[in-house]
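Hey, I was hoping to borrow your eyes for a little while. I've been staring at a protein lately and its backbone has me curious. You're getting the sequence in one-letter code plus the fold written as tokens. Would you mind checking whether the tokens look sensible for this chain? Here's the protein in full, and shout if anything looks odd to you:
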Amino acid sequence: MGETLLILERAYGPEHRLVAQVLARLAEVAEDERKYEQALYLRQQVLQIDTRALPDHPQIAEDKIGLARVLAELGRGEEARENLREALAAYESVFGTDHPVVARIRVFVAQSLTRLEDYQGAIGQLNSAVRSFAATADMKGEQVWALTWLAGIHRLTDYPSAAQAALESAIALAENTRERSSDLGCVVLTLAYVQQDKRDVDGARANLARALSLLDEHDGDETNGTGVETDLPPGLEPLTREHLAIGRCRQGDLLLSLGRLDEALTEYRTGLELARMTSMFTDNVPLHFRLGGRCRSASRAGSEGADLDLAYCPLCNVDRVGRTFRGGRTDTRFARLSSRRRGA
């Protein structure tokens, strides 16, 4: 892309609109690589070129949103907010406050406000966007997108009932659109987590099962069955077998706290089976102990002779005293973790 930029600069000059387009793409790459200082320089160059080439054009507002996103990542909150205010005002002056184009901009503004931890400001923009999308027949996909962000922020800010309402609305809309199974699946999985937080055992169980079904539908596509591959809203769970395994373990915890031992053990077993299908058993030491340790605790709480096969974790070969064996040797990392958990 650097060579393309040089060719365009030689052909059209350094301040041509085509040069700005390439610079904007380079800024996106820098953001993806978390090189925010570089991205900031590129975004500033884009805005400078477009301001001269396209005065009073809506593209200027779009450039300011990109610049605000980078400023937010760098913690320069006031500058970010100023660019967001100017961008939104520019779009409203052209299209009015309720136009779907403005609603899209409100979602982008909300994303940047979320990065700045201005959650109330983000929620206000998203609610306005949802209302605008709902009033337009062919904007259901965009409405799902806005509701998903809204739910994620509500979950982050510990409002599970509001999160659940937004997620249920998003699911109902997504079922009537052509949303990918992975996109719908991450919303369904997050709803299961929210229901667990609210101790809704049956609702969570149904949505965990549905999320697994949606993941199976999605296996083999361009994301290799890992679900949404880009920029999930904060507070939403990616649709992966790892997150489904953790969800099953959380479900087991919830059932165990309610004294429903047999159902808890079933959930832990399901979590272990899902975990075996991933790299989790080699890459995630804390989860070994979460899954394996919970199985042991649940087994000890049961009647004599019940589920004694779960007195160790088959995922990581943790025995009853918390040691693990790999190739005949004790793995001291696991032993130290286990001893701390026992209060040693």
